[in-house]
Write a structure and sequence with these properties.
Layout lengths: L6 E2 L15 H21 L16 H23 L11 E2 L19 H24 L18 H14 L9
Antiparallel strand pairs: 1-2
Length: about 180
C-alpha cells in the first residue's frame, strides 16, 4: 500500500479556536487548565501504552506530549522575537495529508525517546515559558502584534497563539485503544 503524500494548503485554515473578546489572562488561564488536563491524562496512562501509537500510523502518547513541549518552546521563542521587534521567520505554506492531518514543522516533530516524568516536567516548564513570553508582549503593549508567523493559520497575535495552544493540548489527547 502506498502512503499518500501531503499537499500544500491553498489558503490558511480558519482560526476556529480564536475568541477576539477573550482577555489574554483568561486565555492563559484556559491554556494552563488544558495543559494540566493533558498532564493528568498522560500521568494516568499505563506504562505499557506510552510508546505505542494510539492507532496504526499515528503518534504514541509520548510523541504527542513531546510535540506539545516542542510547540510551546517554538511559540515562546517566536514571542520573544516579536518582543524584541525582530522580523519573524517565514515559514512558507503548510501541508496537509489527504485524511486531514497537518504536517508539523520539523522543529516540532516529536521523538519517542522521552520518559513520562521528563515530559510532565517539560510540559509545565514550556507552558510557563509561553506564559512569560505572552505577558512580556502584553507589558510591551504588543497584544495585537503578530508573534506567530503564518503557516497553517494566518499570522497570530499573542491572544490567538495562546488560544491555539489551549486547543492544541485538547487535540493531542487521543483515545488510547490498547489500554493494558
Amino acid at each position: 500500500m502506498t502512503q499518500q503524500q501531503p499537499t500544500p494548503l491553498t489558503r490558511y485554515l480558519p482560526k476556529s479556536f480564536a475568541r477576539p473578546e477573550q482577555p489574554l489572562q483568561e486565555a492563559l488561564d484556559a491554556a494552563r487548565t488544558s495543559m494540566r488536563i493533558f498532564q493528568a491524562w498522560l500521568a494516568d496512562l499505563p506504562e505499557a501504552v506510552l510508546s505505542v501509537p494510539t492507532t496504526p500510523g499515528k503518534w504514541s502518547p509520548v510523541e504527542h506530549a513531546d510535540h506539545l513541549v516542542k510547540t510551546n518552546q517554538v511559540f515562546a521563542a517566536l514571542m520573544d522575537i516579536a518582543a524584541r521587534d525582530e522580523a519573524l521567520p517565514e515559514l512558507g505554506v503548510g501541508y496537509v495529508y489527504p485524511d486531514g492531518r497537518l504536517v508539523t514543522l520539523s522543529a516540532m516533530e516529536p521523538t519517542s525517546e522521552r520518559s513520562r516524568d521528563e515530559l510532565l516536567t517539560d510540559l509545565q516548564d514550556s507552558a510557563f515559558q509561553v506564559e512569560a513570553a505572552a505577558l512580556r508582549l502584553q507589558d510591551l503593549g504588543k497584544q495585537e502584534t503578530p508573534c506567530i508567523p503564518g503557516w497553517i493559520f494566518a499570522p497570530m497575535n499573542v491572544r490567538e497563539a495562546t488560544q491555539l495552544l489551549g486547543a492544541h493540548y485538547r487535540r493531542h489527547m487521543p483515545r488510547v485503544e490498547n489500554r493494558a
